[in-house]
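User: Just a sanity check before I run the rest of the batch. Below are the structure tokens for the first item. I only need the designed sequence back.
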């Protein structure tokens, strides 16, 4: 909760500063505009003065731009407030486990994976990648959506170091490739942050996932 509250305060501060900067910018631009308009009036040709409707049009144009800037500032403020509200509602997720295709922290304990073979597949291959995206394991797997356990070993059965790992499932039918799908796993939610496009979930190990990409939730601990 402290991490969530602190993040919310940090996110709100830049928004307040942005509103203040917008207001200062508008006031400065308006004063500059008035100076320019006054100078234009003082230096116009007496034999061919500028039509008063031109001045009115310039004022109307600047006023429209000013109102648009204020509207944009208000929309940014509302968007930030909605994001903070959503983040506060998700604060209770911290400590729970989320199932997604995001990279999962392997700390030496076997990981339970949830494959999703392509329809019609009669053969599948599980592929593991390290945090650098390098393939570290390739092994035949049942052509089923039943959970399977990965012991944290490479293709030769040797132990892999702790770290973040992601998984893909290659599906085949009669030896022909059908497609590649992400493999999901559960990971503990360590933090909720307010990202550029709304709240995001930070998993153990640092992987960041959008709430819309979370397929299931459960209490902490093996189940």
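Assistant: Here's the designed sequence for the first item:
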């Amino acid at each position: 909760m402290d991490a969530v509250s602190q993040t919310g305060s940090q996110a709100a501060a830049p928004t307040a500063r942005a509103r203040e900067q917008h207001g200062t910018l508008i006031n400065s631009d308006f004063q500059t505009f008035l100076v320019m308009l006054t100078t234009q009036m003082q230096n116009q040709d007496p034999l061919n003065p500028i039509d008063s409707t031109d001045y009115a049009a310039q004022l109307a144009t600047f006023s429209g731009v000013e109102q648009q800037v204020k509207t944009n500032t208000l929309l940014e403020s509302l968007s930030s407030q909605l994001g903070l509200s959503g983040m506060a509602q998700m604060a209770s997720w911290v400590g729970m486990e989320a199932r997604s295709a995001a990279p999962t922290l392997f700390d030496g304990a076997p990981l339970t994976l949830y494959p999703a073979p392509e329809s019609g597949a009669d053969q599948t291959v599980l592929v593991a990648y390290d945090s650098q995206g390098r393939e570290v394991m390739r092994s035949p797997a049942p052509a089923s959506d039943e959970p399977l356990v990965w012991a944290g070993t490479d293709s030769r059965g040797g132990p892999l170091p702790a770290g973040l790992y992601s998984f893909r499932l290659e599906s085949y039918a009669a030896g022909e490739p059908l497609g590649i799908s992400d493999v999901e796993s559960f990971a503990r939610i360590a933090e909720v942050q307010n990202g550029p496009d709304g709240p995001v979930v930070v998993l153990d190990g640092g992987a960041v996932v959008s709430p819309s990409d979370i397929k299931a939730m459960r209490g902490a601990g093996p189940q």
